[in-house]
UniProtKB/TrEMBL annotation:
SUPFAM superfamilies: FAD/NAD(P)-binding domain. One of its GO terms (molecular function) is flavin adenine dinucleotide binding. It comes from Primorskyibacter sedentarius. Catalyzes the folate-dependent formation of 5-methyl-uridine at position 54 (M-5-U54) in all tRNAs. This is Methylenetetrahydrofolate--tRNA-(uracil-5-)-methyltransferase TrmFO. Pfam families: GIDA (PF01134). It catalyses: uridine(54) in tRNA + (6R)-5,10-methylene-5,6,7,8-tetrahydrofolate + NADH + H(+) = 5-methyluridine(54) in tRNA + (6S)-5,6,7,8-tetrahydrofolate + NAD(+); uridine(54) in tRNA + (6R)-5,10-methylene-5,6,7,8-tetrahydrofolate + NADPH + H(+) = 5-methyluridine(54) in tRNA + (6S)-5,6,7,8-tetrahydrofolate + NADP(+). Residues 5-372 form the MnmG N-terminal domain. It is found in: Cytoplasm. GO terms for cellular component: cytosol. Its cofactor is FAD.
Length: 451
């Protein structure tokens, strides 16, 4: 076997795809344009750099679809999950990581693999031959984006991801804020105190909403539309949908008790999550924003405890392009018109670090099997990976296709299980049990295909 696999993009999906294919014995070339060609959001040339949150969300593999995806990736010797576990930070029931060491380790691990090499240049056109995976993510370059658009004949689809601000811990007033995970969730004291909380009374909340609505926001370029993904809405967009929206979203006050005023119930609470292992940086949970920088500092310093906040990074906004995958990709994530090209990651219409890496895992394994010349067993739809890839490659309605997180709504129903909220716990456990069994069998069946 002499054929190489070329992967365009060294983010979560591209890194995971490279790892999976390389471990199967395939020679891999990662094409990464950074740091020669920069993007708005990236700060380094590292592979696997995290540009938004530092969280992989819930790690509960029995009651949460994201946690189940974590479990499946770990069982498949996933690089992203192994590295995340190595650089894990306290975050209640979530999996959060120290972002810089995480990316440095992903880079070092791939560079040390004998089957992996990295080429630092921009790919501007779709290749006519070879074996390729395009995993360029939400910040696909304009040249490559134009080439994809010309090939597919479809108008580019886009939405805007907003980046949450990061604050220096030493600038937070702990006489007003306190450490507590919602409902004291976590097995250790460190986990139960993983979040920093800033309370608001009703007057403070109303003043904050007024300021948020009046703040200067980033303007869109001509021809751009603000088609936001609901899981990553800027806070000002949420506020525009109703004055109580934030209080029932990222600022909900439930499950928290203020030790400074234990008898006073907060009207709203802003939560911050540790962003590095040293505990010197905190990001504001769910506070993606497109406010201009000056307005951000003014508005965010209205939050009790953040009056003197100093910002390591202010929020920002960037364009995210994605394919109408149900019409363009086959069940193996190959482009119908050029089947030697697979797509993986956020460009396929999945949303989130975990989902992107999972699609990279699948693309890498599928491409490796094709190069080796050994048939891959069919991916079970009842797994988290299977449910997600089925959705984006045919299960979703093409006319209304939008980026999707993994969730139990994508799973095939189980016979005899109660519906509604009361039966949810048993139903979710049954989903995860079924998925784990199917995933384990699928991996075992690959022993004669992939090393």
């Amino acid at each position: 076997m002499t054929q190489e696999l070329h992967i365009v993009g060294g983010g979560m999906a591209g890194s995971e795809a490279a790892w999976q294919a390389a471990n199967a014995g395939v020679r891999v070339v990662i094409h990464e344009m950074r740091p020669k060609v920069e993007t708005f959001a990236h700060k380094t040339g590292n592979l696997g750099e995290m540009v938004c949150s530092n969280s992989f969300r819930s790690d509960d593999d029995e009651q949460n679809a994201v946690g189940l995806l974590h479990w499946e990736m770990r069982q498949a010797n996933g690089l992203i999950m192994a590295t995340a576990d190595r650089h894990r930070l306290p975050a209640g029931g979530a999996l959060a990581v120290d972002r810089d060491p995480f990316a440095e380790t992903v880079t070092a691990t791939l560079m040390a693999h004998p089957n992996v090499s990295v080429s630092y240049e921009e790919v501007t056109a779709l290749p006519e031959d070879g074996n390729w995976i395009i995993a360029t993510g939400p910040l696909t370059s304009s040249a490559l984006g134009a080439a994809i658009q010309a090939e597919t004949g479809a108008e580019a689809l886009a939405f805007f991801d907003a980046i949450a601000p990061i604050i220096y811990a030493e600038s937070i007033d702990m006489s007003k804020a306190w450490m507590q995970s919602r409902y004291d969730k976590g097995e250790t004291e460190e986990e139960r105190t993983a979040y920093l909380n800033c309370p608001m009374d009703k007057d403070q909340y109303e003043a904050f909403i007024d300021a948020l609505l009046a703040a200067d926001k980033t303007e869109f370029h001509e021809g751009e539309t603000a088609g936001y993904f609901d899981g990553c809405l800027p806070i000002e967009v949420m506020a525009e949908r109703g004055r109580e929206t934030l209080r029932f979203g990222p600022m909900k006050p439930v499950g928290l008790t203020n030790p400074h005023q234990p008898d006073v119930k907060a009207y709203a609470v802003v939560q911050l999550r540790r962003d590095n292992a040293l505990g010197t940086l905190y990001n504001i949970v769910g506070f993606q924003t497109k406010m201009k920088y000056g307005a951000q500092t003014d508005v965010l310093r209205m939050i009790p405890g953040l009056e003197e906040a100093r910002f390591a990074r202010l929020g920002g906004i960037h364009r995210n392009t994605f394919l109408n995958s149900p019409t363009l990709l086959d069940a193996q994530m190959r482009l119908h018109s050029k089947p030697h090209i697979r797509f993986a990651g956020q460009i396929t219409g999945v949303e989130g670090y975990v989902e992107s890496a999972a699609m990279g895992l699948l693309a890498g394994r599928l491409a490796a099997a094709e190069i080796i010349g050994a048939p891959m067993p069919d991916l079970p739809q009842d797994t988290a990976h299977g449910a997600l890839v089925h959705h984006i490659t045919g299960g979703a309605e093409a006319k209304t296709f939008q980026p999707m997180n993994v969730n139990f709504g994508l799973f095939r129903p189980l016979d005899g299980m109660k519906g509604g909220r009361r039966g949810r716990k048993d139903r979710y456990k049954a989903y995860t049990d079924r998925a784990k069994s199917a995933w384990s069998d699928w991996l075992a069946a690959q022993t004669s295909v992939l090393a």
